[in-house]
């Protein structure tokens, strides 16, 4: 990288990339507002500092700290969205969405349909999420499958800082309600992030690694584990193609099918509990479309079917890790 | 802020239209000519009538499954409304929403929800939008006495108070939540007493008294419009025909119901208008005929309208249909 | 049926079978209590009369009408259960569970695990559910997949009155939190119900029809549609085996695999939206276990991916019906 | 109901144990000897100390992530507690729950929840159980000022009032909800004012004043135990060390924090006990040494204890492991 020319990218942790996306969206469009617990600078700019500086730059009218009232937060976002704003509502941790599921699923998701498209709910709900920090069972869940089961919602999970910026920008300007899931374990990992406007469209998976022997489909921070696992597999002569879905709804099924048609073997990896996780949907869809060309069953690797345990060795055993990915991929190839 | 003649006649017209609409619905349902879930608002006509002459079309309203009176009061077109209840394509919401989910942005009727209490947090969003946009639009959200016991009520009132939102929380206290008497589920005698928990005005009024209701609503609207913040308004009323059409109403003492029906607010309003010399018999009869005609027209329109086609099922889920 | 001997069964609609199950459980065990909106007789014994008579028989201490406060209802049930009772909490319609998801999923489901089994939450949550009554988008959802994704919960959906009685009895006396889903459309369909104690264990699927050409796996009222569809298929010489899962968690995977191993073809049918529905999990599991013996991909038939529409022709098009089952089964066999 | 000498010394012992435990946690965390999420209760010792001498082991308690002081006050064994915080197999919950989810039925500490407000509805269930079983057990549920803005608070207080449950809703008002000042998120000055919305007693007390706190708690306990129903009790206190260990506390004015620490309730209590002649220096020193020794023992135990094995992961999800 030359210092003489304006750099195209800067190294930023994901949490800063998210901050930039919001900042730039707010600068570009006065309809973008932010609401959530502790989001304003007088409250520290968010517990993970994702909204730091925004209230100072854009004012506390547009960046509003709220009481601890998730139904009120999402409800206010919905009403303001119908009335023409583009609210970004923060639910501090994904597990807490459980107290607001009615607003999210019975209202945000359904109001366009129930009104025959007379109203729209272009909100973005940001949630930090996931295990790995020893926060225990109520601060560690990945619940994207709940939301993917609800027609009307879009569901987005970035795997790296650049995508976090680009996908969040898409969510903010999308005409439909989007849930944007930010795995806390990824917040502080740096990566190159494009400076200035950067949009990653929803519904476009990325091929993170090309390969011929199996397709590993993943999303969120597990993509990185899949890539590292692929390096290990390559040493054994197994070439994995790694797909990063980026958004689950809309789903880039074409890209998935193209890859699996080529490799004839697929493994789906995600952090959420396996039972009724998004991997089940993917497995079913891949099988429905490609049964005759598959060399073996689509395999799934997710978390164990237990509440997230506190103690570190248990939490480690709960999560799908690199070693498990390698093992699962080997079994897929050996079928 | 007493209502002038125009306001009073406007209120009477709204009340009459609601009453007649309800009567027509129940008639057609009872005779099997139409089929739909139906939550009768009969007996609760006065509250929306007051707002009908106090709100502008660009003011926002949110209501519930028991919303027909509010829809009419806010000015939702009767043809579309009837067609929506009958599930027709030309209904307000293309037949997709139905009676519990009428939306009509043209008249400012923004959301009708079937989930008890859930309209209140959303109403705050309309209030927030008005505040941020710097307009003086007011939002009215209607809900029942029973709804005052659910969490969303509490979160919404607190946030509205903290943010001083231009929202009127209109509790239509008809003394029953489905089959449960007010006192059996609610720990205060007057819902408006709960305003103290949010440091905002809480006002209880006879929701069947047109003057009292108008004055209380006017005060709340003025307060909201001038940026002074939310009000919790409680109108005491009564639901004549049970929770839902078909309900056996056994849990409602017959005498209590009879007493309420004897004090039917719409004919009482009529008597009062004549007695006070606000209007002549002929004026009121003309209003009644106008309402009747409008309903005839809407019913005929809705009955003749087409049902949607199954092809339309997957539209309107997202801005653009997903692959 | 002879009138001289005590009949073994009586014809009852499902709602009455449910009533009997609760009544008998309350008679047998004083720890069983009921709470929910309008459940006592002074409030009419439930909006569908499922609890009619119970407060008169067992007293209003044990059959308690509540305010409209689903979090409070489930929370009270949880606390009382930990303290030794066996509460049956009614959530009037399944969609409304959205306001109580935190109590159900973060608490009822997790407290045993989080306490290292020091406490248990033996509650039963009953929900009437499902589309077909023109109630629109907020009173018609089938959300069992949400709950199956939550470790710690059991999920049960009966297809007929006898099972409703026997399965509900199992739920009430189960040591874990159970969600018992009652499709409103089935409430008034009569069927023979055993008189007196009748227990159907959780985790035992029933073979409702034997067949050789494909296995149709279903649950709830759709089982009956599958049976009628099978009659139509039989006329074309296609013999479907129809399985009724009865409980989704625990799942009788053995029974499913045994059947599919025999027929080599499977179709999963449920009322819930297909995307991320329980059918995805079943499809994935069947494929994982039986890939090499399957003659074609596991097919899924659920509701269309839209909020439940109000208007009758749309609601009909939304739901999977008998004709769609026949078509789907034909396609499965033709693969 | 003034506390007698035994009660006062009992309270002092609890307060001391909490303070020392907290200091040890922060010391070991700061030095990197242990790692865990930690929500310091330092500054809030007096509230649980009052309950520690007023409740029986068979009374129920529910608390939150900021629960260490309540755990100690209710009598959770220190060894198990320390081991649980450190994720050890011999922890109260086998290391599966962790600091935010301590359960210890032996001492009556029934639920510790990490979801704001969610303990309140569950506490009603314990109250209901006691009522149905005909015992005179009391349930205390602790929560913060911020929690009084969430829906579950409202639903729980209403239900407790309607059912007259023997539940004490103990709001530990430490004036911050994470980083948000009370006034910025809460529409009333005193949380106890919200009791009016449920027709139950609402009492605000200096939660750092041992006598006032004891008296208010004793009144609420007596009321609950004698079947008179719930109380909303608000103890004003202050959180010395931010929301969570590691928190930069920038949102807390330094002077405000300093003033609170200057009025540290535990040494103040000590001074008062001596000044009033309730105890001699030697009595208090003995208590302090006893606490210290107990903590030494618990820490040593917890540090030496084994971590759970991955084999244990899938146990405890259901009564019997599913296939
Ligand atoms: C969250 C939720 N719980 C329960 C219901 C079922 N339900 C529909 S209306 C109603 C009673 C509401 O009573 P109230 O608020 O007084 O309004 P009213 O019907 O009297 O106008 C109930 C319990 C629901 N729709 N939503
Ligand atoms: C439903 C929910 N929303 C948000 C959070 C995140 N959170 C944890 S503690 C807390 C502040 C609670 O403040 P308060 O009730 O005053 O208790 P304190 O921490 O001061 O003891 C918040 C917002 C949560 N745990 N649960
Ligand atoms: Mg009512
Ligand atoms: Mg606090």
Could you explain the architecture of this structure?
The complex is a heterotetramer, with 2 copies of chain A (335 residues) and 2 copies of chain B (323 residues). Chain A has helices spanning 14-28, 54-58, 70-82, 101-108, 111-114, 144-148, 161-173, 222-235, 253-263, 278-290, 312-318, 322-334; strands at 9-13, 32-36, 63-65, 86-93, 124-129, 154-156, 178-183, 190-194, 206-209, 214-218, 240-244, 247-249, 266-273, 299-303. Chain A has 335 residues and is α/β, with parallel strands linked by helices. Chain A has 2 domains: 10-194, 3-Layer(aba) Sandwich (Rossmann fold), CATH 3.40.50; 206-334, 3-Layer(aba) Sandwich (Rossmann fold). In chain A, helix 1 (14-28) packs parallel to helix 7 (161-173), helix 3 packs parallel to helix 4 and helix 9 (253-263) packs across helix 10. The longest helix of chain A has 15 residues, at 14-28. The model of chain B has no long low-confidence stretch (mean pLDDT 97). The termini of chain B are far apart. Chain B has helices at 5-30, 46-54, 68-74, 78-85, 119-133, 151-163, 182-185, 210-225, 254-262, 265-275, 281-304, and strands at 60-64, 109-113, 139-144, 167-173, 176-177, 180-181, 202-206, 231-236. In chain B, helix 1 packs across helix 2 and helix 4 (78-85) crosses helix 11. Chain B has 11 helices and 8 strands. With 323 residues, chain B is α/β, with parallel strands linked by helices. Chain B has one domain (5-305): Thiamin diphosphate (ThDP)-binding fold, Pyr/PP domains (Rossmann fold, 3-Layer(aba) Sandwich). The chains are: A alpha/beta (335), B alpha/beta (323). Chains B and D meet through helix 6 of B and helix 6 of D. Bound molecules: thiamine diphosphate (TPP) (2 copies) and magnesium ion (2 copies). One magnesium ion (MG) binds at residues 144-146, 174, 176-177 of chain B.
């Amino acid at each position: 990288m030359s210092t003489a020319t304006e750099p195209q990218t800067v190294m930023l942790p994901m949490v800063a990339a998210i901050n930039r996306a919001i900042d730039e969206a707010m600068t570009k469009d006065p309809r973008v507002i932010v609401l959530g617990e502790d989001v304003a600078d007088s409250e520290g700019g968010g517990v993970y500092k994702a909204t730091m500086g925004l209230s100072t730059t854009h004012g506390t009218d547009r960046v509003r700290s709220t009481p601890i009232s998730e139904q009120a937060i999402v409800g206010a976002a919905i009403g303001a969205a119908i009335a023409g704003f583009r609210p970004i509502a923060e639910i501090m941790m994904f597990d807490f969405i459980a107290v607001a599921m009615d607003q999210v699923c019975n209202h945000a998701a359904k109001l366009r349909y129930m009104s025959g498209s007379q109203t729209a709910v272009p909100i973005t709900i940001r949630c930090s999420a996931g295990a790995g920090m020893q926060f225990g069972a109520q601060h560690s869940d990945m619940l994207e499958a709940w939301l993917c089961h609800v027609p009307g919602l879009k569901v987005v999970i970035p795997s790296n800082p650049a995508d976090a910026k680009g996908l969040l920008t898409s969510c903010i300007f999308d005409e439909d309600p989007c849930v944007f899931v930010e795995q806390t374990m990824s917040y502080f990992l740096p990566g190159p992030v494009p400076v200035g406007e950067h949009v990653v469209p929803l519904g476009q998976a990325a091929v993170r690694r090309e390969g011929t022997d199996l397709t590993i489909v993943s999303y969120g921070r597990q993509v990185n584990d899949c890539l590292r696992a692929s390096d290990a597999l390559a040493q054994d002569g197994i070439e994995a193609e790694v797909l990063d879905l980026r958004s689950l709804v809309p789903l880039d099924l074409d890209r998935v099918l193209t890859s699996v048609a080529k490799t004839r073997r697929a493994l789906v990896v995600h952090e959420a509990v396996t039972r009724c996780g998004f991997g089940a949907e993917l497995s079913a869809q891949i099988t429905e479309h490609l049964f005759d060309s598959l060399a073996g069953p689509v395999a799934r690797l997710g978390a164990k079917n237990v509440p997230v345990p506190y103690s570190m060795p248990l939490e480690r055993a709960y999560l799908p890790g690199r070693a498990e990915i390698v093992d699962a991929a080997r079994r897929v190839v050996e079928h | 802020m007493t209502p002038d003649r125009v306001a009073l006649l406007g209120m009477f017209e709204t009340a009459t239209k609601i009453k007649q609409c309800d009567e027509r619905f129940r008639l057609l349902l009872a005779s099997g000519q139409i089929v739909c879930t139906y939550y009768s608002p009969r007996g609760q006509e006065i509250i929306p009538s007051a707002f009908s002459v106090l709100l502008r079309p660009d003011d926002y309203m949110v209501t519930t499954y028991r919303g027909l009176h509010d829809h009419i009061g806010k000015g939702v077109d009767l043809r579309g409304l009837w067609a929506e209840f009958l599930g027709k394509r030309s209904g307000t919401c293309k037949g997709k929403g139905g009676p519990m989910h009428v939306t009509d942005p043209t008249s400012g009727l923004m959301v009708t929800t079937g989930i008890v209490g859930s309209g209140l947090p959303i109403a705050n969003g309309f209030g927030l939008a008005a505040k941020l946009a710097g307009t003086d639009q007011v939002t009215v959200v209607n809900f029942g006495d029973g709804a005052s016991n659910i969490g969303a009520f509490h979160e919404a009132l607190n946030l509205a108070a903290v943010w001083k939102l231009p929202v009127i929380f209109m509790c239509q206290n008809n003394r029953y939540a489905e089959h449960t008497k007010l006192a059996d589920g609610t720990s205060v005698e007057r819902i408006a007493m709960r305003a103290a928990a949010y440091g905002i005005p809480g006002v209880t009024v006879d929701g069947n008294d047109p003057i009292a209701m108008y004055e209380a609503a006017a005060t709340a609207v003025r307060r909201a419009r001038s940026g002074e913040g939310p009000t919790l308004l409680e109108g005491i009323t009564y639901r004549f025909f049970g929770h839902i059409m078909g309900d056996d109403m056994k849990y409602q003492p017959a005498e209590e119901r009879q007493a309420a029906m004897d004090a039917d607010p719409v004919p009482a309003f009529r008597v009062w208008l004549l007695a006070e010399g606000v209007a002549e018999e002929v004026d009121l009869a003309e209003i009644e005929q106008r309402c009747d005609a409008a309903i005839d027209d809407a019913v005929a329109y809705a009955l003749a309208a087409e049902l949607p086609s199954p092809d339309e099922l997957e539209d309107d889920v997202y801005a653009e249909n997903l692959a």
